[in-house]
Amino acid sequence: MEKIKVKDSVGTILIHDMTQIIPGVSKGPRFRKGHIVRDEDISVLLSMGKEHIYVWDQTPGLIHENEAAERLAQAVAGSGLVLDEPKEGKVNLTAAHDGLLYSSVDGILALNTLEQVILSTLHNHYPVKKGDIVGGTRVVPLMIDEAVIKEAEGIAKTFKEPILEVRPLKHAKVGIVTTGSEVYHGRIQDKFGPVLRAKVENWGSEVIAHTLANDDVSLIQSSIREQLNQGAEMVLVSGGMSVDPDDVTPTAIKEMGAELITYGAPVLPGAMFLLAYIGKIPIMGLPGCVMYSKTTAFDLIAPRLMTGERLTRLDIVKLGSGGLCLNCPVCIYPRCSFGK
Q1: DSSP one-letter code for 139
Q2: Interval 222-254: pLDDT, tens
Q3: CA-to-CA distance for 131 and 138, rounded, in angstroms?
């Protein structure tokens, strides 16, 4: 690139977008990269406070910020993402559909350790809607050594999974078993079922069966098996998750041959959460807080299972950092620290 006086710039080609700010009226690019300066542009450039401008002077080995940002975005983008057009040296990555953002913390760190390279994203496992901006790339200088971008592209290829991708939530057939003798015998109304049904449907899945069971291990187990036989791809068992002697839900799940992943999660609310698998089918034991708290461990874990991810105990343990809900008077999840 070449720096020249504005008054001598007629006929030259701008190397970057130039922003004009008119207080209270507008802010945005007045001249775009590639614009050929004309006589009538001189007064406008001077009014923008430009005494000198940078114009195109192709130097071997250097590439423009727009090209660099676009190549970075292409290098990190996996499925479920759309790349916006480069604008003022920046490229936004937006969600192509609803789902969860999966981002590689190690990959983001590796790229950002390169000098003059920037990748900024939402948190890993952030729930997004179609059209949401989930990340952005840019470089610091107007022109950057292409070797840096090639190094960034090489780093991205070293990771098994894309550094960024949006995974859709799959449509799942869900069974619900509400436990508790007080509900089973009709002494109180079931409050769990409607809450769980609303969450399941909001995630794009359906409840295919909802049964009640008293505090009896064999009845809870037969209810779960019945729903599996009906084609349930996920079973939610609510209630009976504490350590009281008559809270037998964990025992029922463990003793029916399920692979126990965890009984307990470092998340508040939701500490008594249970996750197990029968084959490939997740079985979740849900504590009472899921019934009355807006967001709990269940909301952090269930959507990941609905993308098809199989979670380990380590995955659950990692939720401890950011696992404290602040119980705000008005819940703004996911635009808060919970689960981040």
Answers
A1: E
A2: 999 999 999 999 999 998 887 765 679 999 999
A3: 20
**Architecture of domain 173-320 in this structure:** 3-Layer(aba) Sandwich (3.40)
**Fold for domain 2-55?**
Molybdopterin biosynthesis moea protein, domain 2 (3.90.105)
Query: What CA–CA distance (Å, rounded) separates 303 from 241?
Result: 21
DSSP 38: -
190 conformational bin, left if phi > 0, alpha if psi -120 to 50, beta if neither: beta
Q: CA–CA separation, 11 vs 33, rounded Å?
A: 14
What confidence score (pLDDT) does residue 246 get?
62
Write the pLDDT tens digit of every residue in 264-286.
999 999 999 999 999 999 999 99
Do residues 42 and 7 make contact, with C-beta atoms less than 8 angstroms apart? Answer: yes
pTM above 0.90, yes or no: no
Tell me the C-alpha to C-alpha distance, in Å, between residue 99 and each of 94, 126, 131, 236, 314.
12, 9, 11, 21, 22
Place of tokens 């008054």: 7
CB neighbourhood size of 308 (10 A): 12
